[in-house]
TrEMBL record:
GO BP, one annotated term: L-serine biosynthetic process
Catalytic activity field: O-phospho-L-serine + 2-oxoglutarate = 3-phosphooxypyruvate + L-glutamate; 4-(phosphooxy)-L-threonine + 2-oxoglutarate = (R)-3-hydroxy-2-oxo-4-phosphooxybutanoate + L-glutamate
UniProt keywords, alphabetically: Amino-acid biosynthesis, Aminotransferase, Pyridoxal phosphate, Serine biosynthesis, Transferase
Gene3D superfamilies the record matches: Aspartate Aminotransferase, domain 1, Type I PLP-dependent aspartate aminotransferase-like (Major domain)
Single GO cellular component term: cytoplasm
Protein name, as recorded: Phosphoserine aminotransferase
InterPro entries in the cross-refs: Aminotrans_V_dom, Aminotrans_V_PyrdxlP_BS, Pser_aminoTfrase, PyrdxlP-dep_Trfase, PyrdxlP-dep_Trfase_major, PyrdxlP-dep_Trfase_small
Keyword Transferase attached: yes
GO molecular function, one term: pyridoxal phosphate binding
Cross-referenced NCBIfam families: PRK05355.1, serC_1
Residues annotated as domain Aminotransferase class V: 5-318
Length: 330
């Protein structure tokens, strides 16, 4: 019987979801103070679920906006709370992350929200802000760097992530939430967005994305077999380093706009000094079986996404191609 045929309430699937949760807890050292939920709807659904579960409509919440996803989360929260952008990188085209000491936080904010890694702009938090008030919880969208490196979960009230970058197929959304934050949802909260419902039912209130959860479980096993997230991070650092080195040593032929201190290990955006060559770059790379290198439509240029599953050999092939392309067109 395939996982796709199993009853989600049968003992066969229960063993799969329980093993997946156990392995994820081991990977991230998640304590019993936190619930781990396997949900649906992508991280975008959590943009609404978080304020609905944590706030009343009149509660203040703080957002640090370092890219498009943080901005979308802020806009959605405005429907269910009173969000305030305490810092935005928009004026500098989302190429930086602020000095946390300089932030003016609302001492009454229910939570402080960040997007840990911005896929479109290639900006990644290397450390995390501490909320001004100890009652203010830190909330992070970790969709695109989840399980790419170790994280101190105890610093956060909520971590949420769409699985599809590093840990499984699209359709699974993982929420790690401190248990004392569960059970305070606004009255208008839809049942499928209420963390209490999902926690009480062990993520089985309705039929979950069973096969996707099974796949995530296999990935968690593999990450543990690799030596855990400390070893995974080393591999990701090596991949990113050779790609950024290729860009930085190209004498301006290739350029990465992101401040070096916050460059993403997952998403590497770059442009060409001669923009008219960018279409040729993408086309020629595709001929070499390297695809999806075109940058997001909102920023242009190129973007190499080098998530956990991208092997070092793939990045080395791209770097070799970039040097050949520069030699031909430089």
């Amino acid at each position: 019987m395939s996982v796709m045929e199993m009853s989600h309430r049968g003992k066969e699937f229960l063993s799969i979801i329980q093993k997946a949760e156990s392995d994820l807890r081991t990977l991230l050292n998640i304590s019993d103070e936190y619930a781990v939920l396997f949900l649906q709807g992508g991280a975008t659904t959590q943009f609404a679920a978080i304020p609905l579960n944590i706030c009343s409509p009149d509660d203040a919440v703080d957002y640090i906006v370092t890219g498009s996803w943080g901005d979308k989360a802020f806009k959605e929260a405005a429907k269910y709370s009173k969000p305030n952008v305490i810092w935005s990188g928009k004026s500098e085209k989302y190429t930086k992350i602020p000095n946390f000491d300089s932030l003016v936080q609302n001492p009454d904010a229910k939570y402080l929200h960040i997007c840990a890694n911005e896929t479109i702009h290639g900006v990644e938090f290397k450390d995390y802000p501490t909320p001004l008030n100890e009652k203010t919880i830190l909330v992070a969208d970790m969709s695109s760097n989840f399980c790419s490196k170790p994280v101190d979960v105890s610093k956060f009230g909520i971590i949420y992530a769409g699985a599809q970058k590093n840990v499984g197929p699209s359709g699974v959304t993982i929420v790690i939430i401190r248990k004392d934050l569960i059970g305070n949802a606004q009255e208008s909260t839809p049942v499928m967005l209420d963390y209490k419902i999902h926690a009480e039912n062990n993520s089985l209130y309705n039929t979950p994305p069973c096969y996707g959860i099974y796949m995530c479980g296999l990935v968690f096993e593999d990450l543990l077999d690799q030596g855990g997230l400390v070893e995974v991070e080393k591999k990701n650092q090596k991949k990113a380093q050779i790609l950024y080195d290729a860009i930085d040593s190209s004498n301006g032929f290739y350029r990465c706009p992101v401040d070096k201190s916050v460059r993403s290990l997952m998403n590497v955006p770059f442009t060409l000094a001669k923009p008219e060559l960018e279409a040729e770059f993408v086309k020629t790379a595709a001929g070499e079986k390297m695809v999806q290198l075109k940058g997001h439509r909102s920023v242009g240029g190129m973007r190499a996404s080098i998530y956990n599953a991208m092997p070092l050999a793939g990045v080395e092939k791209l770097v070799a191609f970039m040097k050949e392309f520069q030699a031909k067109h430089g």
